[in-house]
Amino acid sequence: MQTENSTVVREFILLGLTQSHNVQLLVFVLILVFYLIILPGNVLIIFTIRSDPGLTAPLYLFLGNLAFLDASYSFIVAPRMLVDFLSEKKIISYKACITQLFFLHFLGGGEELLLVVMAFDRYIAICRPLYYSTVMSPRVCYVLLLAPWFGGFVHSITQVVLILRLPFCGPNHLDNFFCDVPQIIKLACTDTFAIELLMVFNSGLLTLLCFLGLLSSYAVILCRVHRSASEGKTKAISTCTTHLIVIFLMFGPAIFIYTRPFRALPADRAVSFFHTVIFPLMNPVIYTLRNQEVKTSMKKLLSRHIVC
């Protein structure tokens, strides 16, 4: 296989989400309004959890970290996408493309692993409540909090190293509105069958296994809750339902994109748009709308600052 020295392509041309000017204008306004409303909500969630001494349970620590991951993730694709809507030619340098790809999978992989950690936390809290304070000690919580960041880094750097070894010597039109593995690999001037298999194993299989594992764990939790007669039964079901909604929003598009051979389908761009732009900002909001403690604390924080 040739090395990076064979790469002569120094920039890629993004074909964008759509070629229709009217649709571009509509999507531009939609993203802008969405960000002006939802992004401050994610920031408010982070400040609420950090400022309220009553929200110290591991669940809120993980929820604050999820909001931070999603807010950071939302800055990888959307801001450049808004700028590209106003540009006639959408160009991204080779280095910027690789950087975007790295952070996309670093934060995305970290979020997937964080959802696994949150599922483990809910399993211990609901199915083993007597052992919860022992198992979820502060030291364990911080280890579990660092694990998604480390796992996301390993997941992402593996893909970047494989792509850097590919030669790009001619075609430079990316059939998407951002840089991602399936589109970049297609432009390599070499046989990429083995690399595609490694990528599917790295992203697709890992995503699918996490998804199936999460569904299984929440099925066990819901069965356990359904048979119990505890006072917190309704709250536990509500929490698990919220987690399941986020899991489907997060893993559904990822499974569609990364668990199949890298062949273009008509739905690819639409699925990628919701996966990288819309859903990340929605996940923490969905959690907050179903969590009474966070909503109450948020109202107190807003009232205190509005009065001041």
Automatic annotation (TrEMBL):
It is found in: Membrane. Residues 41-287 form the G-protein coupled receptors family 1 profile domain. It is a multi-pass membrane protein. The chain crosses the membrane at residues 25-47, 59-78, 98-120, 140-164, 205-225, 237-258, 270-289. It comes from the Eukaryota. The keyword tRNA-binding does not apply. Gene3D superfamilies: Rhodopsin 7-helix transmembrane proteins (1.20.1070.10). GO terms for cellular component: plasma membrane. Keywords: G-protein coupled receptor, Membrane, Olfaction, Receptor, Sensory transduction, Transducer, Transmembrane, Transmembrane helix. GO terms for molecular function: G protein-coupled receptor activity; olfactory receptor activity. InterPro entries: GPCR_Rhodpsn, GPCR_Rhodpsn_7TM, Olfact_rcpt, Olfactory_Receptors. It holds the Pfam family 7tm_4. This is Olfactory receptor 4N4. It comes from Nannospalax galili (Northern Israeli blind subterranean mole rat). The gene is LOC103739386.
